[in-house]
């Protein structure tokens, strides 16, 4: 140990740190932003795990490396990562680059604060409160409610389950699972994978989707339960002039999970959880009352200390990423963004019809997913039956492998029920052009025509 470096009188010089950050930001702009959104660049430079381990030199050592080498590490991390902002990335329900949200992410990392007490995060506490209140107004909750931002929709689903259980079993914390009534959760096979069926005899919770992950989502019948709507989209709550079934369920819902990092392209992760309850159910369910954080004799209104609403207490100020974006573009532009995505899906569907080697799983998709099979020439004359389905099931995985290794684009695939593997294409990025949709189908044919 060097006593001089450990002396309390020796402060770290910030000039080298500032210089490093400036150089790193240049790399981010050039490699991640400019190249990452350039259609002429690859979506990914695929490497198998063992080869990538060698390229990245993952071993951590006792001594540090020079700045030039660390900057190269930054370049390599970007180079070998998947460019989800690329116009030909259609693999997930998130894609594209939103500059205002990205800058907000930079700011929250630079500020390096945590969202649990007003004294530590005054700005972001008020911003989260303002965003949540406006979102509640948009979905028709005139009397308001409660809520918070979570690290993803699955976490919001878990919160909804927790609150429903606590609502019906308020002594659950003391009695535990074996001392409480057996509960039943009602969901569907189409729902997000983190929601599971619970077998029991007390019907307390049901969950529906506003934005199907896979194909479509049926509507529930409403009896004596708490209704949770997972993953609503902005178009449904802003621009609908006639009450649809989806909007009716949204207004009646007891809780809503709203993933803003999907169609609205906020940087990951940005997920709002809204609760119509105004009796502090969220806090009563999750509170631990840590005395070192939530003193009740503070000099300000302690209702702004939101940490006890969360099971994790400390949270990143994700609401700022949506607040800054909303401020920059306004409500109408957010609505227009969703409109444009739906137009692209119609164009994608039309392109599938245009190319005779593609067959849509649904003739008319209900929202933003276009699911289709690629039928290689060798299978075109086979009658529908077990042999065709077996061979068709093997097509998408091979095409996906070739696609990844060439780096030209990314599209997901999956099976559904007894249906063989099909491609699941989601058009989110505003950088997508008509020729990109044609390229997708032509590239799939190029990669799979010999199968």
TrEMBL record:
One of its GO terms (molecular function) is pyridoxal phosphate binding. SUPFAM superfamilies: PLP-dependent transferases. One of its GO terms (cellular component) is cytoplasm. Its cofactor is pyridoxal 5'-phosphate. The keyword Lyase applies. Keywords: Decarboxylase, Lyase, Pyridoxal phosphate. Belongs to the group II decarboxylase family. This is Glutamate decarboxylase like 1.
């Amino acid at each position: 140990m060097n006593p001089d470096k450990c002396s309390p009188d020796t402060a770290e010089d910030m000039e080298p740190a500032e210089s490093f950050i400036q150089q790193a930001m240049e790399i981010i702009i050039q490699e991640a932003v400019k190249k990452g959104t350039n259609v002429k660049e690859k979506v990914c430079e695929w490497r198998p795990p063992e080869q990538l381990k060698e390229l990245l030199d993952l071993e951590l050592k006792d001594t540090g490396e020079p700045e030039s080498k660390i900057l190269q590490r930054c370049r390599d991390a970007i180079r070998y990562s998947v460019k989800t902002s690329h116009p030909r990335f259609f693999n997930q329900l998130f894609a594209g680059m939103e500059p205002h949200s990205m800058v907000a992410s930079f700011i929250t990392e630079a500020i390096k604060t945590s969202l649990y007490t007003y004294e530590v995060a005054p700005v972001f506490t008020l911003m989260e409160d303002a965003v949540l209140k406006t979102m509640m107004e948009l979905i028709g909750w005139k009397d308001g409610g409660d809520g918070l931002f979570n690290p993803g929709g699955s976490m919001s689903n878990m919160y909804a389950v927790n609150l429903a259980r606590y609502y019906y079993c308020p002594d659950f914390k003391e009695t535990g699972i074996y001392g409480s009534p057996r509960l039943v959760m009602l969901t569907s096979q189409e729902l997000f994978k983190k929601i599971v069926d619970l077998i029991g005899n007390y019907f307390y919770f049901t969950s529906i989707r506003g934005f199907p992950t896979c194909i479509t989502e049926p509507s529930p019948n409403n009896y004596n339960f708490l209704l949770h709507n997972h993953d609503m989209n902005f178009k449904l709550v802003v621009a609908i002039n006639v009450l649809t079934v989806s909007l009716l369920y949204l207004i009646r819902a007891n809780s809503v999970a709203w993933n803003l990092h999907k169609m609205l392209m906020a940087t990951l992760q940005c997920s709002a959880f809204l609760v119509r309850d105004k009796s502090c159910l969220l806090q009563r369910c999750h509170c631990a009352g840590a005395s070192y954080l939530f003193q009740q004799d503070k000099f300000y209104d302690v209702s702004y200390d939101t940490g006890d609403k969360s099971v994790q207490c400390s949270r990143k100020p994700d609401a700022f990423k949506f607040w800054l974006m909303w401020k920059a573009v306004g409500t109408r532009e957010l609505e227009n963004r969703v409109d444009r995505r739906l137009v692209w899906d119609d164009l994608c569907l039309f392109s599938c019809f245009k190319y005779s080697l593609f067959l849509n799983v649904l003739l008319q998709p209900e929202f933003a997913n276009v699911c289709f099979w690629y039928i290689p020439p060798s299978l075109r004359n086979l009658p529908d039956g077990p042999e065709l389905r077996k061979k068709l099931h093997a097509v998408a995985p091979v095409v996906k492998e070739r696609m990844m290794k060439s780096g030209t684009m990314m599209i997901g695939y999956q099976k559904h029920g007894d249906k063989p593997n099909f491609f699941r294409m989601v058009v989110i990025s505003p950088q997508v052009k008509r020729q990109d949709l044609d390229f997708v189908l032509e590239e799939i044919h190029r990669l799979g025509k010999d199968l």
